[in-house]
Recover the amino acids of this structure.
DNA sequence: GCCGGACTATGACCGCGGTCATAGAACCAA
DNA sequence: TTGGTTCTATGACCGCGGTCATAGTCCGGC
């Protein structure tokens, strides 16, 4: 089943999207035009589901506008955010190759447009362009490194350090103004909303951040970096 | 730098290895012979390092005999086992493609022989055989799923459930006799040796396992499965 | 306006599991 | 044999952080 509402994206728009998209660097204009020609856009309202777990993969998804998150929902209801995708970032790189159901869900965190490519079209394109496949493997490598790094953090770091690391990552991605709620930050750090709120209060008292409803401002990026990297040289 | 000692493997042996190796299914005899022709074996003593983190990747590694582990060593000294590789299982799938340094180390857990393929040779072979690349992406997909699943377990499961899950996985891989120490199990479950020993004592009192020095025997696989999957339908 | 829901904020409680300490058993090498 | 190392075993302690409860605040919808 396909979700969202159809939305117009002309070929030039689609080409511009793929031109700068993660995983499609180094392609010629014709190759970009080829994959852009296979894509079509769909619009999602804030909070709308883009894909569900445990269903066979039918599309390759690439965010064209807005922000989407990919997350795992555990049997007991805990949600863990796996990926925040801006314009130009793909939501699923494995599924299009294997086609098999996986455990991830995706939803729009704000009004968003997501480009779709039918799985078979995507597969055919990828198999004709080894450079794309090598790009994808290297993105997957980063994903695995990132997952391993989260595992290490969960085992040996406390909540404060994990949250600081999340904020530091978000600083690089969104700049000093981060429009996320404490619950969303908690799902990124692998902890509870309460602990996140407590920790943010501490960081606020230290003058490192300011925070309001659904927003965090990084006041002292340097202190954040110091807190974050401290354990590395202790 | 290349570690281990050179060891003779004739072409037939190497071909037999790749024939059944993870990621090389569905290749013709000639293709198998081709990759086997590029490989050479090296021997490692128990405990010997196979590769170190933070060095550029120079080889693709495939276990030919014995058992090896791939692990992450955190700055503070905690070790987390990422992969146990038997005969036919590759140690590194990302590195050969990107060539960039990563965070993983590998060491032989017993006397082992590991087939090496020079990175450039491996890359050339892979780019000529898209089927291999798709296989590799699907293995990477499994690795990512497994990492995510460990993350969820670390966030919301207690040590006992994680350890049971580890034992259950090892049961599938090695059968009912598992030759690992409690420290090694701890590094798999993401906990301490002490907690592992305590938990094993509990499982022993329940009659589910028996354990001795460096060995665990699964007495009641069914109970293990029940303990392990319980939370799924609660 | 008013009301309901989402978000923030904070206190109290307490249990899991990490840390430290101690000790005995098994194994190996000299 | 002896001595050293590794592995198993278990007790005591206690702090982080999850859970539950309460309340205040902001926002959107009717």
């Amino acid at each position: 089943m396909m979700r969202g509402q159809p939305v117009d994206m002309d070929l030039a728009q689609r080409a511009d999207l793929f031109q700068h998209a993660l995983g499609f660097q180094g392609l010629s204009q014709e190759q970009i035009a080829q994959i852009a020609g296979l894509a079509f856009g769909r619009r999602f309202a804030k909070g709308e589901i883009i894909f569900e777990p445990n269903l066979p993969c039918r599309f390759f998804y690439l965010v064209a506008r807005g922000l989407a998150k990919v997350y795992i929902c555990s049997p007991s209801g805990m949600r863990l955010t796996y990926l925040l995708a801006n314009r130009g970032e793909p939501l699923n790189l494995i599924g299009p190759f294997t086609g098999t159901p996986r455990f991830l869900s995706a939803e729009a965190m704000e009004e968003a447009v997501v480009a779709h490519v039918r799985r078979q079209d995507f597969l055919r394109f990828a198999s004709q362009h080894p450079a794309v496949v090598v790009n994808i493997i290297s993105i997957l490598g980063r994903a695995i490194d990132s997952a391993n790094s989260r595992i290490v953090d969960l085992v040996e770091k406390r909540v404060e350090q994990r949250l600081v690391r999340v904020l530091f990552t978000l600083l690089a991605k969104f700049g000093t103004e981060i429009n996320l709620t404490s619950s969303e930050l908690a799902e990124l750090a692998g902890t509870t909303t309460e602990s996140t709120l407590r920790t943010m209060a501490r960081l606020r008292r230290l003058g490192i951040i300011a925070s309001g409803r659904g927003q965090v401002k990084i006041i002292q990026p340097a202190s954040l970096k110091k807190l974050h990297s401290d354990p590395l040289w202790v």
About this structure: The mean pLDDT of chain A is 93.
